[in-house]
Amino acid sequence: MMPRRLPHFCPGEAHDIKQWLREEGSQEAVTAWEAAIADYVGMPAAAAVSSGRQGMVLILEHLGIGQGDEVIIPAYTLKDLAVLIQKLGARPVPADISPDTLNVTPQAIRARLNSRTKAVIALHAFGVPCPIEEVVAVAKEREIPVIEDCAHALGASVGGRQVGTFGEAAFFSFEATKPVNTFGGGMVVSRDDALLEKVRAHNARGADDSGPFEKKTRAARTERLLFATKLAFPFLYLLATPQLRRPVERAYRSVLHAPPKKVRYLPAQAKLGLRKLPSLAERIRQRRRQADLLAGLLRPDIDVQRVESDCTTTWYFFVALLPCEASKVRKGLLMRGIDAGIEDEIADNCARLLEDHQCPNVHGVYSRAIVLPLHEGLSDPDIEKLARTLNALVP
Ligand SMILES: Cc1ncc(COP(=O)(O)O)c(C=O)c1O
């Protein structure tokens, strides 16, 4: 089986995690990890938090966002973000995406601005930077803060400058398949010390509970084993069966993707992050090489998410746009041993979920997009097989 993604593991980390959990106590490692991320991104400081989602909520709360306010979000993003904005009493307003870059455009954001708009969330979708400088310029005309959603994008840059440094604040995610994986957790970066103090205080109030972290490490190891032994096939087959897709996906998300509620980011997670960060640049380089190979082998009528020439991406996901509905080829790929993701396994169509009719581009992208395998476990012959198989399956 060729999985579409593979959480990054360092040799011996399972043993070390057990040891670190036994030693728990001091917050020194978390402080060092915050400093390492701030330094990597090029910001004065950072604050760790239990999830990227929690990071976004804390930023919005700090900005005073609540009842009657509007927050612009990309039409193509994780739906949980819209729900969390609604929980604050505010209204999430989707802005349409470019069908080439799959990112929000400054024009779409401008079209959704009004006197109630209090923040813009700019996602760097699948690691590909959005036109963040233009987005910030549009928002600045009305003094509206921009929050960068860097959940997929640690290591991506625009004109040599790391994402996460352009807006008022940014949040990163360290979930299992993210560029740096600490089996949950996130980080807020900002030049606003008061915000970072709030995030740290929030984290300090969280329960000292390693349960969710340990559950995620076990689930990721099990997933890896299932792929290695082909036992993942029955699960993926259910996922590729339209009538069963929703409950199977929900069950999966509840294990690997659920944000831990009131737990704190643990020193053991910080130690894992400190160990994994140094290899990030090399892992991105490997993925870029694979992505170039794959893109060059695909049929000309299969488009690949565009990366602007002054930008670098993390290749968190390799997203292709098919000339047909992606659901039509997904099972065929699976029957040939290739796992691919479609529809809300990639991102949610938030315009549809919010019953908004001003985002025409997102609908076509949502149904045509497919995430193809891209990770360090693939060889060049694997990538050639992938391209050959997909090219033959697309009608
Ligand atoms: C676009 C986007 N934003 C935010 C998040 C939230 O990150 P976390 O899972 O750490 O809460 C995710 C998670 O995958 C995401 O895909």
Write up what this structure looks like.
With 395 residues, the chain is α/β, with parallel strands linked by helices. It has helices spanning 13-23, 28-41, 52-62, 79-87, 106-112, 132-140, 193-205, 211-228, 232-239, 242-256, 267-276, 280-297, 327-335, 350-353, 360-368, 380-393; strands at residues 46-49, 70-74, 76-77, 91-95, 117-123, 146-150, 157-158, 161-162, 169-173, 186-190, 303-304, 311-312, 318-321, 341-342, 348-349, 369-372. The strands form 4 sheets. The chain has a 7-stranded mixed β-sheet with strand order 1-10-9-6-5-2-4, with helices on both faces. Strands 11-13-16-14 form a 4-stranded antiparallel β-sheet. Strand 5 (117-123), helix 6 (132-140) and strand 6 form a beta-alpha-beta unit. Helix 2 (28-41) runs parallel beside helix 11. The structure holds pyridoxal-5'-phosphate (PLP).
